[in-house]
Amino acid sequence: MDLVLEQGGFSWVLGTADAAGRGKGYAIGWQVDLPREVVPGPAVLSAAGVEVPVEITS
Q: How do residues 3-40 score in pLDDT, each as one tens digit?
């Protein structure tokens, strides 16, 4: 599953991970580094069709 960051008309795939199985509640996690082009301000993280508004800080 891709984790995507969208900001100011640009988008970046930050990472790809597989969800854990049923016994672990299908948990998933990513460890990422933000691209240099990302600036402080509003952005959207999305994975599997779910979008979450976020605020990038310096």
A: 999 999 999 999 998 888 888 888 888 999 999 999 99
Task: From residue 47, give the alpha-carbon distance in Å to each of 19, 30, 40, 52, 58.
Answer: 11, 11, 21, 9, 23
Contact 9, 16 (CB under 8 A): no
Report how far residue 28's alpha carbon sits from residue 14's, in angstroms, rounded to the nearest whole number.
14
User: What's the alpha-carbon Rg for the chain, to the nearest Å?
Assistant: 13
CA distance 19 to 58: 30
Residue 56's CB is within 10 A of a number of other CB atoms, namely: 13
